[in-house]
Amino acid sequence: MGTASTEIPATRRVPGARRAAAVAVLAGAGLVGGSFSAVTVAAQDISPDVSLTAAGAPAAKSIAAGTDGLDPSLAAAYNSAAAEAHAQGVSLSITSGYRTPAEQEALWEDGLQTYGSPEAARRWVLPPSESTHVTGQAIDVGPREGAQWLEDNGNHWGLCRMYDNEWWHFELATAPDAPCPARLPDASDR
Ligand SMILES: [Zn+2]
User: Fold this and answer.
1) The dihedral of CA 28, 31, 32, 34: what is its sign?
2) Considering the domain boundaries, does residue 126 fall inside one?
3) How far is CA 123 from CA 104, 112, 126, 184, 185, in A?
């Protein structure tokens, strides 16, 4: 299962109302390392069209819901995979897909604050110029069981888990039914 980090920064443990939604977005972005933390659960409960800056204030643009804004090939692959998962009774949904450059910048800046350096932050979040969420080529999924199902079955549609430290992050990374490439330790190795 490999939760590379189970430690949640102290600032993230305080469930203040103002911070809660932004923290949930960060959890969806993979900034919260603990797989089974209450914060991660909160990310799945949040309305998908909630729009927030890193500080928790309303942003001008909504965070895309579901497959909105994704590369059409990725959206089609995910929709087919999700239909099969649901047919098998497995819960699976996108917790974070396409992000605007501004949304990614807010996540990156929050990551810098949380982890203290670009080198440490890059394990969990990339700047807008490098993030595959900004190009519509990545999805974060949940809950844990659904992500595990996608890890086990996603290659039938070309979908692969990419990083050892992010069980939720998938990309179109192989041909349908071909094996997935070896996972990278984390996003900083990209
Ligand atoms: Zn991701």
Assistant:
1) positive
2) yes
3) 15, 11, 8, 11, 9
How far is ligand 1, taken at its centre, from the CA of residue 133, in Å? 6
Q: pTM of whole model > 0.90?
A: no
Please state, in angstroms and rounded to a whole number, the distance separating the CA atoms of residues 137 and 67: 10
Q: Is the pLDDT of residue 44 over 70?
A: no
What's the 58 CA to ligand 1 centre distance in angstroms?
22
Distance 129 CA to ligand 1 centre (A): 14
For residue 84, the CA-to-ligand 1 centroid distance in Å is: 22
What is the total count of domains within the chain? Answer: 1
- Residues within 5 Å of ion ligand 1 by Cβ? 138, 140, 169
Going by pLDDT thresholds of 50, 70 and 90, the confidence category of residue 53 is very low
**How far, in Å, from the CA of 136 to the mean position of ligand 1?**
11
Domain annotation covers residue 87: yes
